[in-house]
Write a structure and sequence with these properties.
By secondary structure, the chain is mainly α. The protein is built from 15 helices and no strands. It has one domain: Na+/H+ antiporter like fold (Up-down Bundle). α2 crosses α11, α3 packs antiparallel against α11 and α12 packs antiparallel against α13.
């Protein structure tokens, strides 16, 4: 019966694949080709994305949301709980399969941190109602704060001359979150001379994020530990959304909210994690390979999870 049901719903799977995930991959491929053809600087693209466009995204969507922020509170606390739970589960599973301790932390973070920015926001825009984009913005905001804190605590060298809290305090993305939340909380509207440029910059976010993701993947050839890579791919694309489904269901999420959280968790490993590993020189090749492989496989995995959640 299960096989018959899946065959019956094959047209729905194809529709999800072609209408939602493959258009996203087209932009990633364009970024890949542009990097190879035009010799684009991925470092410059990342700086533009992380220091200007993503902070503007946070300010715009958090401050102009038409629904009260209180309505996204369940999404907010669940995002923190989910991140911690997935991190611990990834750490334990990596330990059980005898992944070396230094690599274990990478596997754990890779499982906990999906690409909700570059990949998840375009999926949310294509697959879900517009109101859920604020929920996605909250998820991206919190996960950005969490990956910054995690990277400072576990990835940044202990003998670094950088201040851990200084790295957190000066991060533009965190300030974008703070400013956006403050504007919304106090009911303050930015003057048009500021608000309009911020809105225009925000509009370019999804396309540029996917373009930058593709450009970054174009230089990802490297020899890595295939064992750790394989474990991370399975944990990220299969175990992470499955655990999220069970956890969200246990805490009372149902319907579209449940589907939304599961699909968000099915996104590939976040490229921001690879950027921090490159900055702190902490196994950047392995993490880049995790980002690359999970991104390549994500059209099928994300489409499958969208289908599964809509059927069950």
């Amino acid at each position: 019966m299960v096989i018959i049901e899946w065959v019956w719903n094959l047209p729905l799977f194809i529709e999800i694949l072609t209408q939602i995930t493959l258009p996203i991959i087209v932009l990633v491929v364009l970024g890949w080709g542009a990097r190879l053809r035009l010799q684009l600087s991925v470092e410059t693209l990342n700086k533009l994305l992380l220091n200007i466009i993503l902070p503007c995204f946070f300010v715009h969507y958090l401050s102009t949301a038409k629904i009260p922020l209180a309505e996204v509170w369940p999404t907010a606390w669940f995002t923190v709980l989910q991140y911690l739970a997935l991190f611990l589960i990834g750490w334990v599973i990596a330990g059980l399969v005898r992944v070396p301790r230094e690599t274990r932390i990478i596997v754990a973070i890779a499982m906990a941190f999906p690409n909700t920015g570059n990949f998840g926001i375009p999926v949310a825009q294509l697959a879900f109602p517009a109101d859920l984009l604020l929920h996605q913005a909250v998820i991206v905001s919190l996960q950005t704060v969490l990956i910054v804190l995690t990277s400072v605590l576990f990835i940044m060298p202990k003998n670094s001359d950088r201040s851990a809290w200084g790295e957190v305090a000066k991060n533009p993305m965190i300030w974008g979150v703070i400013i956006g939340l403050a504007l919304k909380a106090f009911g303050v509207q930015l003057p048009a001379i500021v608000a309009k440029p911020v809105e225009l910059i925000t509009g370019a976010y999804a396309a540029l994020a996917l373009f930058t993701l593709g450009a970054g993947l174009a230089g990802g050839r490297a020899h890595v530990e295939t064992g750790a890579l394989s474990i991370a791919v399975v944990l990220k694309l299969i175990v992470s959304p499955a655990v999220t489904w069970g956890l969200a269901f246990a805490f009372g999420f149902r319907g579209l909210d449940l589907e939304f959280l599961v699909v968000a968790a099915a996104a590939p490993v976040g490229i921001l994690f690879a950027i921090f590993c490159l900055i702190y020189e902490f196994r950047p090749r392995l993490v880049s390979a995790m980002v690359f492989v999970t991104t390549v496989l994500s059209p099928l995995s994300v489409s499958a999870w969208i289908l599964i959640t809509r059927l069950y």
